[in-house]
Amino acid sequence: MQILHTFLDWHQMRAVLPELIATGLLNTLILAAGATVIGLVVGIVLALGALSRHRVLRYPSMVYLDLFRGLPVVLTIFLLGQGLPFAGFHPLGYGSYPYGIAALGLISAAYIAEIFRSGIQAVPPGQLEAARALGMPHLRAMRIVVVPQGIRNVLPALTNQFIGTIKDSSLVYLLGFTISQRELYRIGQDAAQQTGNLSPLVAAGVMYLVLTVPLTHLVNHLDRRLKSGPKLTAAAVEPEAAPVPAVSAS
Amino acid sequence: MTNLDETAIAVTSSVEIRGLRKSFGHVEVLRGIDLTVSNGEVVCVIGPSGSGKTTLVRCINRMEEPTGGSIVIDGVDITDRKVDINAVRSRVGMVFQSFNLFPHMNALANVSVGLRKVKKVPKAEAERIALDRLAAVGLRDKARARPSQLSGGQQQRVAIARALAMDPTLMLFDEATSALDPELVKGVLNVMTDLARAGMTMVVVTHEMGFAQRVADRVVFMDKGVIVEAGPPEQIFEHPQTPRLQSFLAQVL
């Protein structure tokens, strides 16, 4: 009974639930979604850089990928989120919240770049050849023919990455947030410390699962659909309707 | 089946290849090729696999960079680094063994994408031309179909329509029927025959000896990176001069 009381005290959970939903869930989603938007934009640029034939584009991209994938998330969050303002750089203002989003985003950009790169490399070389044979310059052929196909291949992996970012967002509380900026983990942890009971933390965990479990199943579904042959959505039939991130044509 | 012969090709190219060489690493695949293709001429390139015929045709639009020699199309040496290769490619159509249709676009988008994204033709006009070319290969009713919904033969005909949409003055075929089931070969060859009759300049790498015999103005036999024998189809198929061509024909006919 002591175990049940410590972890599953319904009253403790219910007491923290409104704040978990109104503040925690909202902030976790803002952090993860904001970071993923940054990650997608920076990631596609890094991926094209890593695939470039030009060393001046390829080397910096690959160094970035090695750095951000090779460092612990906590360390990167601290270095970027606390280090930058500490060193006198305040490109994102004086609050720590935007730095948290930026740090998460720049980390996930490295992973997203790898996902894009493998997806683009999985597109048969004949596709690029056929586009080039029509007279398209390299970048335009990539943008119109290769990248849209690569992106479809990587939707499951991207969703996985989003799940990872949701979980990683529990680390940015280290930068020190105001009451209203706290995300799921911090709210659960604070309540657990105040009450000496772990049930609020369990409730926070349940909230994470509410987000991640459906996404995990979405990944499985996308994976199955991809393997059972490419069935295209109507939106992808027209080339300009395909979800192509901004890459300038040459 | 098609209406290509009704729309005779107005402008065609000529090609003059001199001393063409191509190496992959230490392997020399083309060892000095001389070949002239006149306006409206259909040249079929035959030979055993590994003879360099695919590399030859891929050099003509610089899908492969030659390591030596020159390729002059309509008086312009396209091996010159200063040549705008994209402009050259936009009027040299290429058809691949593996079709290489864009799977994320329907047939109409496949055929119109070159017009829209290379020639910057407005969408409505590009689609009108694309529908016309699809009709020419007998697939107007498949405009909204995606490549995965088409048979191999239909895909290859869409690929031909995609090349024709750009109003090419020269067409390159790289074993266009080699990946097809036998019963689908004929439809593609018919389209190619119509195109030849319409007066297109064509370089056709093929294993279809019947097609070469019927349609080619000239047949070129390649082996080990050189042209061993060239001439009109009757001469090549009825009176082969060299032992290499004789033994090749004995194996394929």
From TrEMBL, chain A:
InterPro entries: AA_ABC_transptr_permease_3TM, ArtM/GltK/GlnP/TcyL/YhdX-like, MetI-like, MetI-like_sf. It is a multi-pass membrane protein. It is found in: Cell membrane. The keyword Transmembrane helix applies. Keywords: Amino-acid transport, Cell membrane, Membrane, Transmembrane, Transmembrane helix, Transport. It holds the Pfam family BPD_transp_1. Residues 25-219 form the ABC transmembrane type-1 domain. The chain crosses the membrane at residues 20-51, 63-84, 96-113. Belongs to the binding-protein-dependent transport system permease family. HisMQ subfamily. This is Amino acid ABC transporter permease.
From TrEMBL, chain B:
Keywords: Amino-acid transport, ATP-binding, Cell membrane, Membrane, Nucleotide-binding, Transport. The keyword Cytoplasm does not apply. SMART domains: AAA. Residues 15-249 form the ABC transporter domain. Its main location: membrane. PROSITE patterns: ABC_TRANSPORTER_1, ABC_TRANSPORTER_2. Gene3D superfamilies: P-loop containing nucleotide triphosphate hydrolases. It holds the Pfam family ABC_tran. It is found in: Cell membrane. GO terms for molecular function: ATP binding. The keyword Magnesium does not apply. It is a peripheral membrane protein. InterPro entries: AAA+_ATPase, ABC_ATPase_HisP-typ, ABC_transporter-like_ATP-bd, ABC_transporter-like_CS, MetN_ABC_transporter-like, P-loop_NTPase. Belongs to the ABC transporter superfamily. This is Amino acid ABC transporter ATP-binding protein. It comes from Planosporangium thailandense.
